[in-house]
């Protein structure tokens, strides 16, 4: 089977990541329990007429994909695969509110049409005039991993040469109010630098879009190779330590060859124990970083983790603001990412320097 490479990327997040010429040179800190993505100048990528009709999630996805395609010097791709946990929330809420306010009568279909989860993938395809494979995965907090796995299988089996893969989610007020009721979002405002010291229930919610051009053809500008990706809905009676060890063993690796461990800690005192078990256990002698204090928590936040890993592997630089410890390897060659949300949908992604 052919290897799979990340040839380019585009990111819109709570940091100014839409500029690929820099790498977290300027960190924006927040003190809140809900944070919004930093908007690029959408007019540079989307005509004002089209932009007005797009929800924020669609605009973020379209622009992030264009940034990735521009960096790869591509006009189009063979396939587009998107992951999203909640889809276009704004239009969904707008349509449901109209049902209630209009007593289920005289409804216009526009918001309903634009609220479907595959709107982002469809808009990207329309802009590129891409008539190839177009699929959207809605698998909660492993939606992005499912999209990457699909693309990886296609590329390994030579069913395509270039695939645009991304994860995108937006936030809206009403949905956030529901998450607050069940303590999924922290009740108190938390400074991003103190996220892991909050010791309270819930996470700091956010939004973002991260897109990647994956290919089985390596380029000089390639960021990393995707070696393996594995998801687990639940662990049952198996510990996360045993699961991680088994994953590495299946890839003929051990903890000593992992140069960097990227963890998805979000400050939720009930579930960060999964990360703490690895960081204090079998990976205690490994350089560790985290990232959700920069991007917040959302269903496809792990795509920001892949963005971070890709940038580190290519630049061989590790920003101080993401470090969990001060163990310094000689270089970054093999990176392992681990993510879970509320004790479910665990995922391991193994990346290697090109």
UniProtKB/TrEMBL annotation:
Alphabetical keyword list: Transferase
Organism: Flavivirga aquatica
GO CC annotations on file: cytosol
Biological process (GO), any one: fatty acid biosynthetic process
InterPro entries noted in UniProt: Beta-ketoacyl_synthase (IPR000794), Ketoacyl_synth_N (IPR014030), Thiolase-like (IPR016039)
GO molecular function, one term: 3-oxoacyl-[acyl-carrier-protein] synthase activity
Residue ranges annotated for the Beta-ketoacyl synthase-like N-terminal domain, each copy included: 45-219
Database matches in Gene3D superfamilies: 3.40.47.10
Signal peptide bounds: none
Lineage: Bacteria, Pseudomonadati, Bacteroidota, Flavobacteriia, Flavobacteriales
Superkingdom, natural source: Bacteria
Name this polypeptide is given: 3-oxoacyl-ACP synthase
Coiled-coil features, chain-numbered ranges: none
Matching PANTHER family: 3-OXOACYL-[ACYL-CARRIER-PROTEIN] SYNTHASE, MITOCHONDRIAL (PTHR11712:SF336), POLYKETIDE SYNTHASE-RELATED (PTHR11712)
């Amino acid at each position: 089977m052919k290897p799979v490479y990340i040839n380019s990327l585009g990111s819109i997040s709570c940091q100014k990541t839409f500029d690929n010429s820099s790498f977290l040179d300027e960190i924006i800190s927040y003190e809140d329990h809900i944070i919004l993505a930093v908007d690029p100048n959408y007019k540079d990528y989307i005509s004002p007429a089209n932009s007005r009709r797009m929800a924020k999630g669609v605009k973020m996805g379209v622009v992030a994909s264009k940034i990735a395609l521009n960096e790869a010097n591509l006009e189009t791709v063979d396939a587009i695969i998107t992951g999203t946990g909640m889809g276009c929330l704004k239009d969904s809420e707008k349509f449901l509110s109209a049902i209630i306010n209009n007593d289920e009568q005289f409804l216009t279909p526009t918001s309903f049409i634009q609220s479907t989860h595959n709107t982002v993938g469809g808009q990207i395809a329309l802009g590129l005039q891409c008539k190839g494979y177009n699929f959207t995965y809605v698998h909660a907090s492993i939606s992005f991993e499912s999209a990457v796995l699909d693309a990886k299988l296609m590329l390994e089996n030579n069913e395509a040469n270039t695939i645009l893969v991304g994860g995108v989610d937006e936030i809206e007020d009403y949905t956030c109010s529901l998450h607050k009721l069940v303590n999924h979002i922290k009740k108190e405002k938390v400074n991003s630098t103190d996220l892991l010291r909050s010791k309270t229930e819930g996470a700091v919610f956010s939004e973002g879009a991260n897109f990647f051009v994956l290919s089985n053809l390596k380029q000089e500008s390639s960021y990393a190779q995707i070696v393996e990706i594995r998801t687990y809905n639940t662990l049952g009676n198996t510990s996360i330590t045993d699961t991680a060890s088994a994953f590495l063993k299946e890839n003929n690796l051990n903890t000593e060859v992992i140069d960097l461990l990227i963890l998805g800690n979000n400050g939720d005192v009930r579930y960060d124990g999964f990360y703490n078990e690895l960081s204090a256990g079998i990976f205690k002698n490994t350089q560790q970083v985290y990232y959700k204090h920069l991007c917040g928590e959302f269903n496809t936040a792990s795509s920001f983790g892949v963005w971070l890993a890709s940038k580190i592997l290519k630049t061989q630089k590790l920003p101080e603001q993401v470090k969990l410890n001060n163990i310094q390897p000689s270089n970054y060659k093999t990176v392992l990412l681990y993510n879970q949300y509320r004790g479910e949908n665990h995922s391991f992604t193994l990346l290697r320097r090109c």
